[in-house]
Specification:
- By secondary structure, the chain is mainly alpha-helical.
- The chain has a domain of 66 residues.
- 54% of the residues lie in helices and 0% in strands.
- α1 packs across α3.
- The protein is rod-shaped, with a radius of gyration of 37 Å.
- The termini are far apart.
- InterPro entries: DUF378.
- Keywords: Membrane, Transmembrane, Transmembrane helix.
- Pfam families: DUF378 (PF04070).
């Protein structure tokens, strides 16, 4: 985003805050700071905010154009992740395997059978 658009957005935000103050509290911050609504400096601020609003219209249209290309069946970042949910998938290729010895069941000896 260019510097002009950023400055315009800041001015639009200032204008929105000022209109919010007027609507909720009947307080015109620009008029209060710069000498009333009819003061030359206040009128310049109002004019700059109005021009900034016109300058930011292409930003609004650009967002709509980008949304038209959105495909809901693909990932937004277009980079698939093959890892596990909790983090990266473990790599067991370098883990040494150990042998597991089978324990054979010993049959009871004949002596214990004869005692019973």
């Amino acid at each position: 985003m260019s510097v002009v658009y950023r400055i315009a957005l800041v001015l639009v935000i200032i204008g929105a805050i000022n209109w919010g103050l007027i609507g909720f509290f009947r307080f015109d911050l620009v008029a209060y700071l710069f000498g009333g609504q009819t003061a030359v400096l206040s009128r310049w601020i109002y004019a700059l905010v109005g021009i900034a609003g016109i300058i930011t219209i292409p930003i609004l249209m650009k967002r709509f154009e980008e949304d038209e290309d959105f495909d809901p069946h693909t990932r937004i970042d277009r980079n698939p992740s093959y890892g596990m949910e909790a983090g990266e998938e473990a790599d067991f290729t370098e883990v040494e395997t150990t042998e597991v010895k089978k324990v054979e069941k010993k049959e009871p000896s004949n002596k214990s059978k004869n005692k019973k």
